Amino acid sequence: MYERTYLKQVKLRVEEPRKFIQVILGPRQVGKTTMVNQLLPQLSIPHVYESADAISAANSAWLMQAWEAVRLKMKASGAPEYLLVIDEIQKIDGWSEVVKQQWDKDAREQVNIKVVLLGSSRLLVQKGLTESLAGRFETFYLGHWSFAEMEAAFGWTAEQYVYFGGYPGSASLANDEERWKSYIKDSLIETSISKDILMLTRVDKPALLKRLFELGCLYSGQILSYTKVIGQLQDAGNTTTLASYLQLLSDGGLLGGLEKYACSVIRQRSSSPKFQVYNNALITSQGNETYSAATVNPKLWGRLAESSVGAHLLNHSISERYNLHYWREGNNEVDFILEKGGKVIGLEVKSGASAGNAGMGIFSEKFHPDKMLLVGMGGIPYGEFLKINPKELF
């Protein structure tokens, strides 16, 4: 079975002396549980794996009982250390306070229990970490699978990746597109929205959130003001509500909204968002076009190619900790702006025959970026670019 590169990094951290709780975050169906199940047999440390998936949200006592059971096993076996892995941690109400209490108790009594927590909702897990566990944890973000990973694991071409996206569990269904689309919509989209967002967060207008997601996928790669979005939605509420719902969708690894690049943070936050899916499967699974029809439709394929580059950059922006924006002034635009450590990189995606773009020159004159890159026609082939870790560009 294919092993993601993150596995070695997590293994090294788990084998270090007990110092931090290791927290693995990421969207549904990117292989968090699979990776841990690959990791455990490779460890010499005795371990216990527990999942909160089927546990009542109010049952925080279950968490304490699981921890106490590990202490008893450790004492009975005489093992010098033990590993406790808890999956779907965000399902338990008040989990962070319980983890803090038990972790600190072990620290005081010098009980060498190491802990790995897994969670599907980045917002909920990070909220618990910052509120109760400050200074006690390290995070690992597992994003959607890259083209390099899908190629290595399933032999996919760049074209297959652009259309079918990066969900490993759906790869075996790609030859039956109707079944593949149903799987993505029912098992991934609906489950992510209903279980990771609606069940765990207060959402006053769930129908609006779902409609915003559908609209955002339809306009992935395009800039839309919240006012225009409201014009296309019924019962739209206000722009603040839409912005908060878009943040929830982003934390679920579904749909993000890039802010406009500007020297002023205030101007960035007041800008119209550029919608961007985290995985192209979220676009194509909701459309009527087939793979073969999409590849010969220049307009649609250009949009999908640009979106796949955007998804690649967006996923890595979390794990590699760089800022991702777009830039537009009048009719001049640069698709993506990467910013890290004072360095700025402008990136334009071109899928058609024309590689000219006045926006690149104007942006360069105005902001003096460290690099200006072209992906696609006349520049780096998009299949090649999708194999690059964007941190290597800085």
Description:
The chain is built from 17 helices and eleven strands. A six-stranded mixed sheet has the order 7-6-8-9-10-11, with helices on both faces. It has a five-stranded parallel sheet with strand order 2-3-4-1-5, sandwiched between helices. The chain folds into two domains: 6-141, Rossmann fold, CATH 3.40.50.300; 147-393, no CATH class. The model has no long low-confidence stretch (mean pLDDT 88). Helix 1 crosses helix 2 (32-39), helix 3 packs parallel to helix 4 and helix 9 crosses helix 11 (239-251). The protein is α/β, with parallel strands linked by helices and 394 residues long. Strand 9 and strand 10 (343-350) form a beta hairpin. The longest helix is centred in the middle third of the chain and has 22 residues, at 177-198. 46% of the residues lie in helices and 17% in strands.
Provide a compact summary of the structure.
The protein is α/β, with parallel strands linked by helices and 394 residues long.
Write the layout of secondary structure elements.
Blueprint: H1 6-15, E1 21-25, H2 32-39, E2 47-51, H3 60-77, E3 82-87, H4 95-108, E4 113-119, H5 122-132, E5 137-141, H6 147-154, H7 158-164, H8 177-198, H9 206-218, H10 226-232, H11 239-251, E6 255-260, H12 265-269, E7 274-277, H13 281-284, H14 291-295, H15 298-319, E8 323-329, E9 332-340, E10 343-350, H16 358-367, E11 371-376, H17 382-385
Parallel strand pairs: 1-4, 1-5, 2-3, 3-4, 6-8, 10-11
Antiparallel strand pairs: 6-7, 8-9, 9-10
Helix pairs in contact: 1-2, 3-4, 4-5, 9-11
